[in-house]
Amino acid sequence: MQANRARYVIGNWKMNGSQQHVAAFFDRLSQVELPATEMVVCPPSIYLSQAAQILKPSSQIKLGAQDVSAHPPGAYTGQISASMLIEQGCRYAIVGHSERREYNKETDADVAAKFLAAKLAGLTPILCVGETHAQRLAEQTDKVVVSQLNSILSHHGADVFEGALLAYEPIWAIGTGLTATPEQAQAVHHLLRETIGGYDSSVAARLPILYGGSVKASNAAALFSMPDIDGALVGGASLQAEEFLAICESNK
């Protein structure tokens, strides 16, 4: 049985959407009784203000950013600070997504700095960890994800994860149509919780750990049935209101 942890479904729209899509998506969600899970949507930052204007402050649906700067406001062209995101209605921020690590060459140290900047500013950071297909085939999954986690744990301890979220996203299952089996995902989630538990077992027990990797309505329930999987970080399926709602409905 799963511990009494908060359960989440977080939609990462990536570089997709439009003003029309934002309006239609949130209009559809406003017409239904929302599932009893924490719901977060992360549109491109340019649409955060529009989404915040549509959503009421009391809405069950919260907004998140797909990235956040490690720096306070200043001379950092193209970056967006945590305080700016909060001003736009954000409550959450994804840090260390595999696409940021790969395409923007973000290191574990870069990700740790963003995690801390978000946390100190009052955002809930969503730390992403995960391995490539080659690393999984080489049986390096455990080593890779623990190393990514330890870049924060070893310097700041487990307390920094109080009020944060962790997401395991096997890179080989993102946008490929492949997904880890529930048992494969559970094994890594358990390892992550055990690793944090080595620093503080109570923090580890309370920390929601989400799975991200081609999650859709057809496989969500099986993933959510695992004892250490507390929700999902959803990519492409989160752009479709009905599919997103169906995934959320599976995570009550």
Broad shape: globular
What's the CATH C level? Answer: Alpha Beta
Distance between the termini: 14 Å
Number of helices: 11
By helix and strand content, what is the structural category?
Answer: alpha/beta
Helix content: 40-55%
InterPro entries: Aldolase_TIM, TIM_sf, TrioseP_Isoase_bac/euk, Triosephosphate_isomerase, Triosephosphate_isomerase_AS
Main location: cytoplasm
GO molecular function: triose-phosphate isomerase activity
Family: Belongs to the triosephosphate isomerase family.
Describe this structure in words.
The chain is of the alpha/beta class and 252 residues long. The chain is built from 11 helices and 8 strands. Helix 3 links the parallel strand 3 and strand 4.
Write out key terms for the chains shown.
alpha/beta; 8-stranded parallel beta sheet; TIM Barrel; 11 helices; 42% helix; globular; 252 residues
In short:
Helix content is 42%, strand content 15%. It has 252 residues and is an alpha/beta fold.
What's the SSE blueprint?
Layout: E1 8-12, H1 19-30, E2 38-42, H2 48-54, E3 61-65, H3 82-87, E4 90-95, H4 98-103, H5 108-121, E5 124-129, H6 133-137, H7 141-156, E6 165-168, H8 182-197, H9 201-206, E7 209-211, H10 217-224, E8 231-234, H11 241-249
Parallel strand pairs: 1-2, 1-8, 2-3, 3-4, 4-5, 5-6, 6-7
Helix pairs in contact: 7-8, 10-11
